[in-house]
UniProtKB/TrEMBL annotation, chains A, B:
Name the record gives this protein: TetR/AcrR family transcriptional regulator
Region ranges (Disordered): 1-20
Coiled coil: none
Annotated Basic and acidic residues bias: 1-10
Residue range(s) of DNA binding per entry: 44-63
Domain HTH tetR-type intervals: 20-81
Taxonomic placement: Bacteria, Bacillati, Actinomycetota, Actinomycetes, Streptosporangiales
Amino acid sequence: MSETTTRDPAARAPGRPRSERAEKAIIEAVLDLLAEESGVAAVSIEAVAARAGVGKTTIYRRWPNKEALIVGALAAAKRPLHDPEHGSLRADLVELARQIGAERGDRHARCFWNVVGGAEKHPRLYARYRNDVIEPRREVLRRVLRRGLERGELRPGVDPEVAIALLVGALAHKTPRDRLPEGFPEAVVDTVLGGIGTEAALGTNAER
Amino acid sequence: MSETTTRDPAARAPGRPRSERAEKAIIEAVLDLLAEESGVAAVSIEAVAARAGVGKTTIYRRWPNKEALIVGALAAAKRPLHDPEHGSLRADLVELARQIGAERGDRHARCFWNVVGGAEKHPRLYARYRNDVIEPRREVLRRVLRRGLERGELRPGVDPEVAIALLVGALAHKTPRDRLPEGFPEAVVDTVLGGIGTEAALGTNAER
């Protein structure tokens, strides 16, 4: 079916670009409000509608409630990590570390900080954020580590969750918007791969 | 001079215990307000005075301004790390990791999260917090790593700031009040000491 003869009204309706603009404006409004000092508490359907310049119905048509709206906006701002598949554990981890590090300067970085900080007060929202936004990203890290293990590059016995905590923790350390020093992602990966201890330190460990 | 004959009015003034109680109430009020969703924005001398049940003058007599008051309260809640001096890098790091991990369950944990998250909005407060509260703690970690290097337990060439980011980052990861799983501090230290990569992974690195 050629574009000119289509009869699908949604595909060519004049309202469609406006609807996309509205969705973008709503997501931006949610992220702007979430980045405010009061975080999740600053977000209400009313405040989002006013800031985005849309009616509340326009919001409810897309997201059934505030929780779905916030998680949707966070998912739009924090995309799944791209699996580099370079064929080497170090090359993959360096690229992932750079991706994670590059997100720090983002103007939305504070949204995520506020949502994690508000986890205790908004446990359902936080659980959904973890599940919908964070877990798919961690899954990419797990996959990279698994391939490294299969290629004999990851020490058997290393707990992947501890390895991920080291990598992500070191890169997320500092304030939400501080940029990382030049070469920091590479230094983190090399230090995690090679370890900081000599045989003497590891011997102490075995003797315990 | 015996206690009964002292003429120092401050030392025996009946107001002294009351004054200590007031100071404690003020610090608790600051920490409670800081842990609120709006963080630093929730703290004002008025709000602290009302919550602590003291007059504003009582606060100003001890802290010249809001910034000094907040940093003073944070310093009271987050003490310098205790340097274990066990004579082994692993033993020292494990004890420090346990100290840091144990703070996570603390009801004040969210104060620190909020102050770091508000760094961009309150840069002077954040700088002072880093300098007065965080730096002395990092200095203990640096000292432990330095002793490890002198004993031949730390690989020469390891950047202590990267090592600290790995250790602290992995332990601070997750939400501010989530407790760490049993054995996690030890797993973090052993994984940082021994590294996650095999010779094959490190060889890849050298070939780059």
